[in-house]
Amino acid sequence: MRDNLILRVIAKALIPVILLYAFYVQFHGDFSPGGGFQAGVIFSTAILLYALVFGMDKAADVLSDRVLIALASGGVLLYAGVGVASLLLGGNYLDYNVLADDPVAGQHIGIILIELGVGMTVASTMLLIFFTFARRMVIR
Amino acid sequence: MTEHISVLLIIIPLLAAPLMVIINSPKFSWLVSLGVTLVCTYLAYILMTDIQRGSEVHYAMGGWAPPWGIAYLIDPLNGLVTFIVSLIALSTIIFARKSVEREIDSHVIPLFYAAFLLCFLGLVGICLTGDIFNMFVFLEISSLSSYALIGMGKNRRALTASFHYLILGTLGATFFLLGIGMLLAATGTLNMQDLSMLLPAVENRPLLHTAFALIVVGLALKAAVFPLHLWLPNAYTYAPSTVSIFLSATSTKVALYALIRCLYDVFSFNYMLDSWLPQALLLVGTVAVIYGSWLAIGQSEVKKMLAYSSVAQIGYIVIGIGLLSDAGLRASLVHIFNHALMKGMLFMVAGILVYRLNSTRYQSISGMGKRMPITFGALIIGALSLIGVPGTVGFISKWNLAQAALAQQQWIVVVALLVGSLMAVIYCWKLIEILYFQPATKSRISKVEQGGDSVARMPVGMIVALWSMALLCIYFGFNTELTLQGAQLAVDALFATREVLP
């Protein structure tokens, strides 16, 4: 991809914007449409674009399989962990009201943490699927 | 505390599975799985006995009150099924360690156990939830992980078997989901208790009939009820041994539980009585018994024979559901428990054959009976139980089923029961004859290290798991307090909800 100047420049310009948009969707999830799943997919498209333009190896340098697997499992753990936290604080499983003194604030904290877990898992799983299939094509 | 047990049963495997993937050590994964299944079995036992003593558990997920939020509702029926699933998962994990080391590449072993726990979680979730959409979600969790588990088999045909199951399983899940969507459209609620209250008001709409048909067909596909059983034999045959044990003993049973729950609890009893379903279930069950046994006779491979025998045994359970009586349903529930025990045990025998001889074909195991007395001693108990000889669990369930059928004078069903048992004698005897009365052939066995430890000795875990199942098979054949009374309580609970209805 050394010679595709336009592609490289546009990709470099676009990737930060895509990442920023992903974070916007992520953190605005509790006020407006959006949330972890959508944000995760958008986030993964940024890395995906990077991998398509600059090559698989460079993308894998940033996010190796090991890291991605840890992120994917970590997201699930975060989700389940929030539930356990509310359980330990005396509420039902995933009852966010008990997470803070004020129930409304508790709901905010709970939903943001959970959406973060979803986002982590979705983004890294999307990338894992992409890397797994792309690598098969390269080997062939 | 019992309040929270219902949700702990799901949280513990949910936390353990990603943890195992992160830590990524085969030995650690097995230990964690053992711990998790042990704790879950204990919790499920407490939950079940607590429910049977009369307390009721309603658990509102996230603190949202039932008709809006997801509620977990435990009655004696799902308490019993949850306990069965946990018990089988525990004994499978005890069995699994060496078998998995042999059959699965070492770098995916943590993933294997993680998928196993997710599958377990899904099955337990189906049992515990009181929300029909949540049930679908758990059905998908357990199915997706079982596709992955089946695909990990050593034989390359495992991939086709898994793909075949994936297509049919997805079809079944889609039907189920469509049915749920229509129920939601008709009533505006997903909570099962709420649905059962609201459905009588819209009973005569075509939408409801369509939903009924879709849900029944979708769940029957998952449960491998006779004409929809095509995915089952190959999936069980080519899956890794551990997976065959677990899935054969639990996954179809849990789908049958979901069917019972939907038929008796969600749709009212009278609705089902007026429909074509009871007759159809009886017919399908009867055919399944004969057809499954017939194909089992023709097999020349242990796992495949057991898989076709499962098709027949599912037929017995379906007959019990179709009889539409107290006694029939009780027989079905008892058979769900008993069949899980004996089929799990028989698949363990197949797993040991794979471990020691690397083959389950009849040709390569001929004359092995005297050399592996521990393994095949258990096999004989399992075979007697499949046939339904008094003193084993198989007898209890068949006796109850036959009584229920006689009480309703369903003579065809009674004849099918007898013929099915006779055919079970044939396919079991065929195996026993090959094991004990034929000369040993050594040449057929391949890819086993000669003089290696694995041929000569059986891992302790396997013996413990196999024989504890075998002894349970006999124990519950004599002491039916837990099974029969548990099933009776479950049936009472189901019929009690019917009387509450207007």
TrEMBL record, chain A:
Alphabetical keyword list: Cell membrane, Membrane, Transmembrane, Transmembrane helix
How this chain sits in the membrane, per its record, is: Multi-pass membrane protein
Which Pfam family, any one of them, does this sequence belong to?
MnhB
What are the subcellular locations of this protein? Answer: Cell membrane
Task: Assign the protein's first listed, main location to one coarse class.
Answer: membrane
The keyword Glycosyltransferase is assigned to this record: no
The Swiss-Prot or TrEMBL record describes its family as follows: Belongs to the CPA3 antiporters (TC 2.A.63) subunit B family.
What is the protein name given in its UniProt record?
Na(+)/H(+) antiporter subunit B
Origin organism of this chain? Answer: Alteromonas aquimaris
From TrEMBL, chain B:
Domain of life, per the record? Bacteria
Q: Where in the cell is it found?
A: Cell membrane; Membrane
| The keyword Isomerase is assigned to this record | no
Where primarily located? membrane
TM regions (residue ranges):
6-23, 30-48, 68-96, 108-126, 132-153, 165-187, 207-231, 243-260, 280-298, 305-324, 336-355, 376-399, 411-437, 458-478
Domain NADH:quinone oxidoreductase/Mrp antiporter transmembrane per the UniProt entry, residue ranges: 130-423
Q: Which UniProt keywords apply?
A: Cell membrane, Membrane, Transmembrane, Transmembrane helix
Q: Which Pfam families match?
A: Proton_antipo_M (PF00361)
Signal sequence span per UniProt? Answer: none
Q: Which InterPro entries match?
A: CPA3_Na-H_Antiporter_D (IPR050586), ND/Mrp_TM (IPR001750)
Stated membrane topology is:
Multi-pass membrane protein
Which protein family is it in?
Belongs to the CPA3 antiporters (TC 2.A.63) subunit D family.
UniProt cross-references to PANTHER family, sorted A to Z: NA(+)_H(+) ANTIPORTER SUBUNIT D1, NADH DEHYDROGENASE
User: What name does UniProt use for this protein?
Assistant: Monovalent cation/H+ antiporter subunit D family protein
Q: Which organism is it from?
A: Alteromonas aquimaris
